[in-house]
Amino acid sequence: PQGEIPVSFTDKEGAFNKDLAERYIQNGLRRSVGEFADAQVDEYLAAQMRELISSTVNVSEAEIWEDYVRENDNAQIKYVRFSPGYYSSKQPPTSEAALDAWVADNESRLDAEYEVNKHRYTNLEKQVRARHILVKAGSYASEEQKAEAQKKAEALRKRAAGGEDFVALARKNSEDQVTAKKGGDIGFLRKGTMPETFDAALFAMEVDQISEVVETPYGFHVIQAIAVREGDVPVDEAKRELAEGLFRKDWLDAKAYEAAASALASWRANESDEALAGKLEADAAKHGESALTPKLEETADFGRADTPVPGVSTPALLDAVFSLAEGETFPEGPVKLGREWLIFRVIDRQRPNEAEFTDTVRESTREVLQTLKQRESVDLYIQQLRAKATADKALRVNQLQPQDGRS
Questions:
Q1: CA dihedral of residues 169, 170, 174, 177 (deg, nearest 10)
Q2: C-alpha to C-alpha distance for 44 and 37, rounded to whole angstroms
């Protein structure tokens, strides 16, 4: 199992020395000469069997050409990625009718989602769903800044308590950028999720009640309790909550697709990289720039087995690029990569040259493929033997003894 023994068993004249070999077997390998000889017989028979299995392997001319194409077909592209997360500041239609229509079209998907998430809705400790408005004043803030933040929070609290729409106030004024987009909605919280002062206020409130201003390490909060649940959540209620999340996910995905399709159509129309880049920059300036901002990028030269775009699984992109006919540079539509949509333009394509596919290249490729297929065949045969032996409870594993004699 260790491979070829890196020890010489020859004497000064270069002749094989039996005593040297026996001493190494007994002292170096901690085995008897008989055990070593039996192992060599076993290995000889195994090698014969491997050779027999390998001899059945053939490589077709089609396989050789396909491998040559795979190794010699290269491209370079410019591309833009459109992530649904970039559009999360936008809000999907919030009407019950829109959600009802989505549920009607996705009943089986929603049932499957509920089965996966059922544990989240059974035997629950008390949870409170909350909205909040945050005015930031963290540990870095001076006393004067904290006083100003508290004053602003008090004013917002007074407006909410006076009847103004909490959702609208949160969207416009909350400095929690994630929840502000959702009208301040944090979702259902259990004790210990939020800072202690936040928890104390929230779990002492009645539904629809608005808190006094609460200070946490993040700043000053105005909190509204909007629902309470405990124990088992009714199935219809749980599914409705899951539907809201899936509906929003689908809506954001559709927004990303629409943006990608529109950009691709514009790119196709004038084939100007500069025009597309300018349009993307203008959109970013309007909506704000982030790590997810769509921008024009360029790959290095890549082949059919490479990963040209970092961070995403790219088989669909490789298929789209290398399936383009001669002269085509754009895909028919955006390409889906994970949750993102991607558009591209081929800026360079080096196709396999049949004139360079000489007999020498053909035979060299055949040898490499044959060696790989032979190894795969042997490995597969061994796996089948092992699976059968395991099923028959006839598998025995010989554990190698450590050289110090301990087991």
A1: -140
A2: 11
